[in-house]
Amino acid sequence: MNISIVTVGKLKEKYLKQGIDEYVKRLSAYAKIEVIEVADEKAPEELSEMEMIQVKQKEGERILAKVAQDTYVIALAINGKLRSSEELADSLDKLATYGKSKIAFIIGGSLGLSEEVLSRANEHLSFSRMTFPHQLMRLILVEQIYRAFRINRGEPYHK
Fold this sequence. Notes:
The chain is of the alpha/beta class. It has one domain (2-153): SPOUT methyltransferase, trefoil knot domain (Alpha/beta knot). 43% of the residues lie in helices and 22% in strands. It is built from five helices and five strands. It has helices at residues 14-27, 49-64, 85-97, 115-120, 134-153; strands spanning 2-8, 32-38, 72-82, 102-107, 123-126. A five-stranded parallel β-sheet has the order 2-1-4-3-5. α1 runs parallel beside α5 (134-153). The longest helix is centred in the last third of the chain and has 20 residues, at 134-153. The two termini are 24 Å apart. Homodimer. It catalyses: pseudouridine(1915) in 23S rRNA + S-adenosyl-L-methionine = N(3)-methylpseudouridine(1915) in 23S rRNA + S-adenosyl-L-homocysteine + H(+). It is found in: Cytoplasm. Keywords: Cytoplasm, Methyltransferase, rRNA processing, S-adenosyl-L-methionine, Transferase. It is an enzyme of class 2 (transferase).
């Protein structure tokens, strides 16, 4: 399975990089995983509704440029479907069973994802109704993907 995590912005926090690198290393035994960063759109703190839409559209174009046509896309969205770790594991297992070997998880920038990205997604996934920093979501996501593979293999880790 080839898994991409397409995300907006450059990760600066060393502690998050270290955590992500650790899980990417662990995941290499199960799948090919790649974290793809696209540039965030520079914008002032105060934006009108129209300016927010334009920022998300520009970031969305960059995201979609990194996603191949034959890729199954899972967009992280606060209003997406809530799943347990076991349900995520089952979903990934079913995708592999039915020949979906390319999966992209999409993490938007601080304003979220554009309508174009949400429309392209095959599903919307929420980790919580709470808002998390998008940089932290990378670590949470990669850990949950690792957990899913461990669950599917019946290996100890998940408790």
